[in-house]
Design brief:
mainly alpha; Arc Repressor Mutant, subunit A; 2 domains; 3-stranded antiparallel beta sheet
């Protein structure tokens, strides 16, 4: 998550104070991602130093210091909004690493590890679904955050199901050694 870009987006609607930016950031993310007020002010200092925002010139670090986006900040915000994130390499996902590590631990049934995490993720999905039913109907921002989380959790559960199926088949039908280098070559991402 880019706090600096989120603050630039909030400032694009007009001048705001630091504490006001914190409140609006949290409201704009469905109050799901709390933001430390110290982080707001340190980010504002960096944005001001880089010329992407400017202050009204009141007391140096006053809580009543108002900030507004500059043309440089607007260019940066527009560029960030229109530039897709780099997703060419898989992220370091703790759950993926945990499953891969479990495969190496003697006397650990990796399929049991998968099922423990699958049950937990299903419980999380149920929690998010209840939240959506209770509150998200009235709050568009929260509804979008909850939908994103439900889709993310669903994709992780589907990966766990696919990994479980692949592990089950690997026990029944181990790969032919000559195909292993071929499989490794196929997953290399070329840039």
């Amino acid at each position: 998550m880019s706090v600096r870009h989120a603050l630039l987006a909030l400032l694009s609607a007009g001048p705001k104070y630091g504490f006001q930016l914190r409140q609006e950031f949290e409201a704009s993310t469905g109050d799901v991602w709390p933001l430390n007020v110290g982080q707001v002010y340190s980010t504002l200092q960096r944005l001001e130093h880089s010329g992407q925002i400017e202050s009204d010139g009141s007391a140096a670090d006053s809580p009543q210091k108002s900030f507004r986006i500059t043309s440089e900040g607007r260019k940066e915000l527009d560029h960030w909004l229109r530039t897709p994130p780099d997703m060419t390499s898989p992220p370091r996902d703790e759950l993926v690493i945990k499953v891969l590590s479990a495969m190496r631990v003697p006397e650990v049934d990796v399929r049991d590890v998968i099922q423990v995490h699958r049950r937990y993720l299903v419980e999380l999905m149920q929690m998010w679904t209840r939240l959506k039913e209770d509150e998200a109907e009235f709050d568009l921002t929260l509804a979008l955050v909850v939908d994103a989380e439900l889709f993310r959790l669903d994709s992780v559960i589907r990966w766990l199901d696919a990994a479980d199926g692949r592990l089950r088949r690997a026990v029944i039908d181990p790969p032919i050694p000559s195909t292993v280098p071929l499989l490794r070559r196929r997953i290399v991402v070329r840039r």
